[in-house]
Amino acid sequence: MSDLDEIRQKRMAELQAQHAQAQQQEAQRQQFEAQKKQILGQILTPEARTRLGNLRLTKPELVEQIELQLIQSAQAGSLRGKVTDEQLKVLLRQISGQKREIKITRK
């Protein structure tokens, strides 16, 4: 029985370590999201933030890409003032234009 108890204790310790690691990763992710939200609040106008929020419902990957690009631009100092809705539309068109369109025609 002692071997079985040792195995159980080892397994319990492994599970606790995995749980602690998962909690730490979740805390780091939440902290990153909070920082990202704060930065975006500083560099986007309310209309632009609303547009990104609406777009997130349909294309979350695209919104993540745009948010990271905006944050990098702000940190590099290339943004002057807040990004307006019109500027965001232009950026969206540029990024959407980069993607390859697939057309299927039936004969």
How is the biggest beta sheet arranged? Answer: none
User: What is the number of helical segments per DSSP (H or I, 4+ residues)?
Assistant: 4
What average pLDDT do the residues reach?
A: 88
Gap between N and C termini, in Å?
Answer: 73 Å
What is the radius of gyration?
A: 22 Å
Specify the structural class: mainly alpha
Strand segment tally: 0
Strand content: under 5%
Helix-strand topology string: HHHH
* Shape by Cα distribution: elongated
Low-confidence stretches: none
Helix content: over 70%
What's the layout of helices and strands?
Elements: H1 2-43, H2 46-58, H3 60-76, H4 85-98
Question: Would you kindly provide a brief summary of this structure?
Answer:
The chain contains 4 helices and no strands. With 107 residues, it is mainly alpha-helical. The termini are far apart.
Protein architecture, described:
- Helix 2 runs antiparallel to helix 3.
- The chain is 80% helix and 0% strand.
- The chain is elongated.
- The protein has helices at residues 2-43, 46-58, 60-76, 85-98.
- It is mostly helical.
Sum up the structure in keywords.
single chain; 107 residues
